[in-house]
Write a structure and sequence with these properties.
alpha+beta; about 270 residues; five-stranded antiparallel sheet; two-stranded antiparallel ribbon; rod-shaped
Length: about 270
């Protein structure tokens, strides 16, 4: 025989089987625990009062569930954001590494092109440097037998240079004019190889010797009078000019060797 049971919380009536006497169940409306008591009035159950709205327990339960879901969703969102940030960070690092590799390859290629251009320029300059060195050595060694002429000093001064190895070098410089076959020529060479001093006083003494307006004997090349010098002969410094074609001869081999090695590294990288 079915039994009518009333919830003490929300007064909702529920019909259960007689075998449920003494057992408990949860009310479907409010969630309260209802006990099937044996002293229920089975024949004429009391008419329950008007039905009321469930107590805030349902809303709290729902709110808790909603909050739980919200926290769960927030955790999932945060975890997704962290994964997204990690992925973006990894992508940025990979892109940066790729960009660095491209720049490195570009720099290596630029260096390779630059070295090859230097080698090409030195190869082109080799015959000119060789011709210049030969003419300078020939002029220095043959200047002692050149004819002479009277030259007038136009001006004289002392200039300075600062070599990379340090220190200061002082160079006396002069400008003079002379005539050959009633034609005026000008020159400025004191000696082949140049004149320089580490002491400014010595350089100034030479400049004072060739003071403005003074006259001195100069030697000139009969084939080209513009090629002239005050002090003839070849000095030790005049032979240094041979280093120029030597550098132009060795430089391209070094440049081309470096270029081939760099090209090989780029191909095998």
């Amino acid at each position: 025989m079915p039994i009518t049971v009333t919830c003490d919380e929300c007064f909702t009536s529920v019909r259960v089987k007689e075998q449920a006497l003494g057992k408990k169940f949860r009310c479907k409306e409010c969630g309260a625990v209802v006990v099937v008591r044996p002293d229920e009035d089975f024949e004429n159950p009391a008419t329950p009062p008007p039905r009321q709205k469930p107590k805030p327990l349902t809303r709290k339960s729902g709110g808790t569930a909603t909050a739980t879901k919200s926290r769960t969703g927030s955790k999932s969102t945060s975890s997704g954001r962290r994964r997204s940030r990690s992925t973006r960070g990894q992508s940025w690092l990979e892109a940066s590494a790729a960009t660095y590799d491209e720049r490195l390859n570009d720099d290596s290629l630029l260096k390779l092109v630059g070295v090859l251009l230097v080698g090409l320029a030195m190869t082109i300059a080799l015959p000119f440097a060789l011709t210049y060195a030969v003419n300078q050595i020939r002029s220095a060694t043959g200047s002692e037998s050149w004819p002479q002429a009277q030259a007038t000093i136009v001006n004289s001064s002392v200039s300075t240079t600062r070599p990379r190895r340090g220190g200061v070098r002082y160079h006396p410089s002069v400008n003079y004019t002379f005539q050959v076959n009633q034609q005026t020529y000008s020159g400025k060479l004191i000696s082949f190889g140049g004149v320089s001093f580490s002491d400014e006083a010595e350089a100034q003494q030479v400049a004072n010797h060739f003071s403005r307006g003074s006259t001195h004997q100069i030697h000139y090349d009969p084939a080209d009078p513009a090629n002239c010098v005050i002090i003839p002969g070849a000095s030790l410094s005049s032979w240094l000019v041979v280093l120029l074609p030597l550098l132009c001869a060795i430089g391209p081999f070094i440049a081309y060797g470096y270029g081939l090695a760099a090209w090989h590294r780029m191909r095998t990288a």
